[in-house]
Amino acid sequence: MPNKKDDVYGDHISAKFNDELTELKTQFLNMGGLVESQVEQALQALVDSDGQLAEQTRLKDKVVDEMETNLDEEAILVIARRQPTARDLRLVISVIKMVADLERVGDEAKKIAKMAIKLTEEGQAPRGYVEVRHIGTHVLSMLHDALDAFARLDADQALRVMKEDKRVDEEYQAAARALLTFMMEDTRNISRCMMVMWVLRALERVGDHACNIAEHVIFMAKGEDVRHTPMEEAERVVGR
Amino acid sequence: MSINQNIPNVAEKPNEAPMTKQAAALAVEAKREDIIVEEGKTVGLPYSDNPKFKLRNVEVFYGEDRAIKDISLDIARNEVISFIGPSGCGKSTFLRCLNRMNDSIDICRVKGQLMLDDVDIYHSKRDVVELRARIGMVFQKPNPFPKSIYDNVAYGPRIHGLANRKSDLDEIVENSLRKAGLWNEVKDRLDATATGMSGGQQQRLCIARAIAVSPEVILMDEPCSALDPIATAKVEELIAEMSESYTIVIVTHSMQQAARVSHRTAYFHLGHLVEVNETDKVFTSPEHELTESYITGRFG
Amino acid sequence: MTDQRSQAEIVRQSLKRRYRKERRFRLYGMTAIVIALASLFILFADIIGKGYTGFIKTTITLEVTLDSEAMYLDDPTDADQRSMADFNAPIINALSDLIPGVENRAAQRELSRLVGSYGASQIRDMLRANPELLNTTQTMTFLAHDRVSVYVKHADNPNYSIRLSEQQQAWVDELVEKGVIETSFNDVLFSSGDSREPSNAGILGAVVGSLLTMVVTLVIAFPVGVAAAIYLEEFAPQNRFTDFIEVNINNLAAVPSIIFGLLGLAVFIGLFGMPRSVPVVGGLVLALMTLPTIIISSRAAIKSVPPSIREAAEGIGASKMQVVLHHVLPLAMPGMLTGSIIGMAQALGETAPLLLIGMVAFIVEIPDGFFSSATVLPVQVYLWATSAEQGFIELASAGIMILLTFLISMNALAIWLRKRLERRW
Q1: I need a surface site. Which of A232, B213, B275, B283 has the fewest CB within 10 A?
Q2: Domain C204-421 is of which CATH architecture?
Q3: pLDDT tens-place string over residues C66-91
């Protein structure tokens, strides 16, 4: 149980260790923020058919990659220097893993941006943007909540994010079916619809990664791995 | 969840920044005052189905001072259990109750039930000498007798009359030294004085001396605190090997050591036994917040 | 930065003062050591300067004709004849031959006095042992008379007064020139007991007496002291009674030694009726006196045995007795021995308590057992220092030198033992 009276990552005897962990956390949240805005901008570019914005978004991926490398390095150094245990160990290990998730989210954003550029070049806005906008907002809020849960080490919120993922999946299924019908209606739209489909697929992946992050947050807070367990198990762990 | 064991343990955790000491001390004080440990309520898995030691409601007094406060614990057969905790938490005192090393301190009183194989350790008719032949002890500082290597190991069997012939004694000495992983290093100089050996060798000699009387339990009071990392690694290796045939209780200040060598870890705090759990559990997700704070270096 | 510079300035200024202080302090220490060394040097120089002549004897070598007529002696085996005989005659004749012109009896008597008073008995003893030497001529070496000895050794020393007549001085000078009077190493000092005659006095009796006394002291004080120390350190409970005992042992170490003499007189001689002046009583008294020293040093030695060794032995299942006998005692032994030897050295130099139990008597015989009358080295020195004869002055100093040699060698033994037996842990 985390000490409610203190900051979640309370004071170590070694202030330097404290600083290192705080730095790790801050950097991770920064990276999260960057990735979040990347997804947001990619969606914006897509919906608004803004090729320039899409290009910018694509280039941001380099920064994200760099941040990933830095964070991994930082985490490895903390392990080598401090041999963290318990809560600290879980934080460091989770950060290493969540960083990979964030990087993938960045990749998905890049993919969306690429599609946005292509679709913009093709001109006319096809069907399916409503679904994209809808699922996009949903997924973005999931990502945001997951990062927020991480910042506050809030297992309850993390659990909510996990549950959201189920709904995103359902929404994705529905949207995919709608697009399929649209493609069958007019075969000329197939190539463009496929692109929208990929965007949807990418967004669904972002949701999965947000869900992964939430699972790691629960691991950090509760010390139990809920990754490949049924939802009831996760509920039990969080409810403890 | 054994992530912990894959972590390279390059060095002991270095002591840090003097500037934060005061702040840290204040924080520690605040924490200690805030957190009240409920007496006799140990979190985790203090009991065992197959106990070697069965300790119930143990209390130790130094004069008026209550050094150990209502501790109940089982120590299983052939398990390695480590006692950790900040200085003065009573872990050494508790360890020394197990072979009645506290007897020689006049003002020290032990209350409660301490059973070794269902026989009371502190029974008035119980012979301390017999008890200590069954429970070997290794101390913080290597303390070989200023005699030859051979005589050090042979001392215990001699006083207990375990070997009648010289050849038997030679065999015991060789076996003990082999078990302690020291035979190859010293077989050519058994007559050399033990105090001339390196610190790590001396400590392993002390272990050999302890196992020469074939005890069932070995108590280790911070056995590596005076050793360099290589010697420490050798002793830890030895502990792992010995755990097949002995029950080992080890008090240590090095949490990494506890994490490396022991099956279960017990966390002591101001005379309370706060938590006992599988070592893997303690070092990845301890149940009690005091344990967590201590092992993550938030006080201690 | 300015702040720092001024701070450095302050430090530099105070540094000078500190170094001055340090130098001054060193100077005090060195002065103290110089004073101590100088006193020691003066003391030694004085003693050696006065005493070295004690190791030199003056002898007169004569060709004596053992003429039976001159001695009125026909049969040297006959005790009656021996007691009547004049054994001085051969000496007078021999000397007269060497110095012609001494005719009258008074002058001859003066001349014969150059030889010590035991010269005649030396001839008597020789003839009794070897009667066949009668009527032969023998070369014999006699100890010169004390006064001759003083004249030969100290003619120029204003501290000595020459008690020889002008005539005698001339004779002595002549005899020295002829090589009849010679000086050589004083073996008498080491081979005989006390005597009224300085030339014949030796210290062997006192040395033997001291050794016998020390044996008694060691045999009693060491085991008792060590046993007491072990009990107090290892077994005794910590309570008021043992505290009381401890305080009293410390007090006992500070009691003036003469009190122990009174105790010995009252208890051993008065109560138990032991004889006076014997090494046993002396040894008992000195044992009582050294006991506190031995107990205190033994306890310190036991305390200095590291507790880790005790723990190691206890942890392996050794009983209390085994811990003490196998581990504590061997490790404490060097310290105990050192303490004991220093206590013994103290006892060896002790005079006061022995005066009270009668070990101050004049004893010629070399003691042959613990119950024969004896004296000890420091008392012998005291006796000689208070004697009237001039020859005893140098003997007293020589005695002090011998005593010091004993003390120094005992201390050296203590140091050697400690170095030898000390084990490192």
Answers
A1: A232
A2: Orthogonal Bundle (1.10)
A3: 888 888 888 888 888 888 888 888 88
